[in-house]
């Protein structure tokens, strides 16, 4: 008998993301959205039982009880309600017969469904049982991908004190400062891109592109970030006149993070740095706190947090030696650098609002530009290691540096300019949306 056209589920999102109509990254074990919310993550996979298309949807098949409606398996709160006796997708696994008994038992007490349109939204008991079985391959891969962030081999190749003193340079110029003259269009582009990062977190659609998805699996960095991603939801649709109340809640959390940052380990400090940046952007873009003096002090504190986090390392030791680092070490280094670059862009937005000049961040010279999307989005260690081997083969010399996106030095000859442009072209071949944003800002500002 010919198999049904939709015998294999075409669902491209887990059940929670599908119910919320949100994008799902389909990461093995648990998608990032479910991981952020501590929700079970499961996919419906219809498995044909050998019948025809008609048999699969017909509730009059001999030997089967009334079909199980999807709506009877969904709960308003969890999205997947298992009948009494059914395990959760992440709990202890029961035998298939136990699950079948629970489902069939619940359906026997249900009245027959006489609606003519219900057949398109049902599965037989056998199909539902198969769908609820977790993917053992995913579970095994999840166990294999246990990450260890306790041994980070990082170094800091720049003077991080210049990061914490950056706010002071606006009022007390230092020799060698170079003013960045953003055009109105470029300034608007930066403003709207950073605003989208704040909106992304406030609406619960994911994490901004300077937070690595696997950071949420690490307990130490997860605490400041999880608190942040939960707390900013109060700013999604504030009632008229309640913006100040929401702002006070965020400000208290920011004050607590800053006061305790001296006691944090490297991962927790990174999470605190990222959370503080998110809070600051939400205050500015979502709660209209641009004129609040607290935000100016918050920027000083943010640069201090950036300095403390950067002091513990911004580059993998292996990166300097042109070898492949540990995945965990690379994740931390890349997330730190991306967060640092976003902080500098946010600083330029605040300076522009106050009518202050914006200076080129020459203290960051020599740091790598953002990594390619294959490395950043890798979901398994093997996938990342293969991608990094390709990266090393592509970049026989060191990878692109952030300062190669700045103005071309006047003393650089024609051959040097061509080589630099060739390196930028190679970098652009595989950048993600974050790298595209960086290039758009630097190209429109400095040319190249």
From TrEMBL:
Protein source organism: Xylona heveae (strain CBS 132557 / TC161)
GO molecular function, one term: DNA-binding transcription factor activity, RNA polymerase II-specific
PANTHER family xrefs: FINGER DOMAIN PROTEIN, PUTATIVE (AFU_ORTHOLOGUE AFUA_4G03310)-RELATED, TRANSCRIPTION FACTOR WITH C2H2 AND ZN(2)-CYS(6) DNA BINDING DOMAIN (EUROFUNG)-RELATED-RELATED
Domain Zn(2)-C6 fungal-type: 13-43
Family annotation (InterPro entries): Zn2-C6_fun-type_DNA-bd_sf, Zn2Cys6_DnaBD
PROSITE patterns assigned to the protein according to its UniProt record, in alphabetical order: ZN2_CY6_FUNGAL_1 (PS00463), ZN2_CY6_FUNGAL_2 (PS50048)
Keyword Transcription regulation part of the UniProt annotation: yes
Entry keywords, A to Z: Metal-binding, Nucleus, Transcription, Transcription regulation, Zinc
SUPFAM superfamilies assigned: Zn2/Cys6 DNA-binding domain (SSF57701)
Superkingdom of origin: Eukaryota
Designated name of the protein: Zn(2)-C6 fungal-type domain-containing protein
Lineage: Eukaryota, Fungi, Dikarya, Ascomycota, Pezizomycotina
Pfam families according to UniProt: Zn_clus
């Amino acid at each position: 008998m010919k198999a049904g056209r939709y015998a294999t589920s075409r669902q491209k999102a887990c059940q929670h993301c599908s119910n919320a109509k949100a994008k799902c990254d389909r990461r093995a074990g648990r998608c990032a959205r479910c991981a952020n919310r501590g929700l079970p993550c499961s996919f419906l996979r219809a498995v044909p039982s050998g019948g025809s298309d008609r048999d699969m949807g017909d509730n009059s098949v001999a030997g089967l009880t009334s079909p199980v409606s999807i709506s009877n398996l969904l709960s308003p709160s969890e999205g997947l309600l298992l009948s009494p006796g059914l395990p959760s997708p992440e709990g202890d696994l029961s035998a298939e017969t136990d699950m079948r008994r629970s489902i069939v038992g619940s359906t026997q007490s249900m009245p027959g469904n006489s609606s003519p349109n219900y057949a398109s939204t049902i599965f037989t008991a056998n199909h539902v049982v198969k769908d609820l079985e977790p993917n053992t391959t995913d579970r095994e891969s999840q166990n294999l991908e246990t990450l260890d962030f306790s041994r980070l081999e990082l170094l800091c190749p720049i003077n991080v004190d210049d990061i914490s003193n950056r706010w002071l340079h606006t009022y007390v110029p230092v020799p060698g400062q170079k003013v960045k003259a953003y055009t109105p269009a470029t300034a608007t582009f930066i403003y709207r891109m950073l605003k989208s990062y704040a909106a992304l977190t406030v609406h619960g659609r994911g994490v901004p592109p300077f937070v690595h998805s696997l950071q949420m699996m690490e307990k130490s960095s997860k605490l400041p970030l999880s608190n942040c991603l939960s707390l900013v939801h109060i700013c999604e649709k504030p009632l008229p006149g309640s913006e100040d109340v929401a702002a006070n809640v965020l400000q208290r959390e920011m004050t607590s993070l800053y006061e305790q940052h001296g006691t944090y380990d490297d991962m927790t400090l990174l999470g605190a740095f990222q959370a503080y940046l998110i809070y600051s952007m939400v205050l500015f873009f979502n709660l209209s706190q641009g004129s609040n003096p607290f935000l100016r002090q918050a920027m000083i504190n943010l640069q201090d947090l950036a300095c403390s986090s950067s002091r513990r390392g911004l580059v993998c030791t292996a990166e300097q030696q042109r070898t492949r680092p540990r995945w965990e070490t690379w994740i931390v280094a890349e997330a730190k650098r991306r967060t640092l670059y976003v902080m500098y862009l946010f600083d330029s937005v605040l300076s522009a609002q106050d009518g202050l000049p914006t200076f080129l961040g020459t203290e960051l010279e020599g740091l790598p530009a953002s990594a390619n999307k294959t490395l950043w989005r890798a979901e398994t260690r093997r996938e990342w290691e293969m991608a990094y081997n390709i990266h090393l083969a592509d970049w026989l010399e060191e990878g692109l540096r952030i300062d190669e996106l700045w103005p071309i030095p006047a003393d650089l000859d024609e051959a040097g300019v061509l080589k630099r442009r060739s390196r930028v072209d190679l970098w652009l071949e595989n950048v993600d949306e974050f790298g595209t944003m960086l290039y758009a800002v630097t190209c429109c500002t400095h040319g190249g």
